[in-house]
Amino acid sequence: MSNVKHVPSNADPKKHNDYSLQLSRWFLISIGAWPQTPTSSLIERLSSIILIPMWTSMIAIITIPCILYVFLEAKGIQMKLSPLVSVFHRIMGFLNYSILLARGKDIHECIKHMEEDWRVVPKIEDYEVMMKHSKMGRYMTGICATFVQGSAFLFNLAATMKTVTFVINNVSTTTHPLSCPAYRKLVDARFSPANEIMITVQVMSSYVANSSTLCICSLAIVFAMHASGQLSMLYTWFNEIIEDNAKRNYSVQRKLASIVKHHLRVLCFITRMENIMYKACFVELAGCTLNMCLIGYYFVMNWGVLTTAKITSYSTIYISMAFNIFIFCYTGEIVAEQCKNVGRMAYMTNWYELDHKTARSFILVIVRSNNVIKITAGKIVPLSIATFGDVIKTSLAYMNALQAMSM
């Protein structure tokens, strides 16, 4: 078509790709999980070698003594349940961190795939579609980062500001309680400087757990938005085939072949995305369901004695977890819907104006689109908006069961 506007030749595909991934990259680098490549600098390699064992140790130093406290020291069901939100949060963070490190090669391949898509985008209309989805992904990542890190900051701030006084040998001592209490025979965190050290390590372990969850969530958003943009471009391409056919343009078969190749390329990208995400999605779905159940239980059982600071911190944590699950479910929904839409796009064009041989080729696209690649949690539960509703209902059901057990 003579009036087609092409992307300027000086457009930098790496710059556009970095725009999509910037927030994800910052947090991945901060925890040493940014994928290493043969072109990575010595500083990048050394930082990963130092950061990975350091952050892993931070989580272990807080989690192991707290688990021992729950099983060996805490008395009564409420005392045992109280630290579990913080414990589960760090266990989830550690599992997500491990998945990020184990899937570094696949993450790098997805990033390369995205960069190549930016490099080969031919027309300004397609470029604008990609930019629209890129901006949407970046905006959603920013909201996710605000919720995850902001809620953790408020929770840690509320815990750090609180003080308790206890008496030993007629001597009164004031200390800051830990949200993850430590087993006293292993670490007695009531006294200085152990108390200050454990609070510092606790905040740092919270950061790596939050960042790991945020990185998984942000990558899911960016990858899903990119795939959605690539599939949206196909609608324009289908219509171009009809227009070219009307003008007796003999490039119709070539363009149809390009559509099929591009469609399969996007499906390969979604398959790789699913292979990266399915374990992390299962961790988030199961962990957030349990934590939301426990937070709801704390609210119901301790409402009369909760301070404003605790109500605020628990509320933000609950909203943050619900938002994380919603984001995963939303990305699963949008990917599945866009895969189906390709078939609808092909059917809704004026395919009947094509010659019979070309029109029959549309059937292959429609049939392939009906076989939807779904983003799942653990290859068990397909992620969708309906799944989000099921998670909320399940967490409330578990909360009622816990409440009945403790009565």
From TrEMBL:
Instruction: Assign the protein's first listed, main location to one coarse class.
Output: membrane
A GO MF annotation of the entry reads: olfactory receptor activity
Task: Answer whether the UniProt record assigns the keyword Membrane to this protein.
Answer: yes
Record field: transmembrane:
49-72, 139-159, 207-225, 280-299, 311-330
Q: Report keywords, A-Z.
A: Cell membrane, Membrane, Olfaction, Receptor, Sensory transduction, Transducer, Transmembrane, Transmembrane helix
What membrane topology term does the record carry?
A: Multi-pass membrane protein
Query: Which domain of life does the UniProt lineage start with?
Result: Eukaryota
- Its recorded name reads Odorant receptor
Q: Report the source organism.
A: Dinoponera quadriceps
Q: What gene is it encoded by? A: LOC106744607
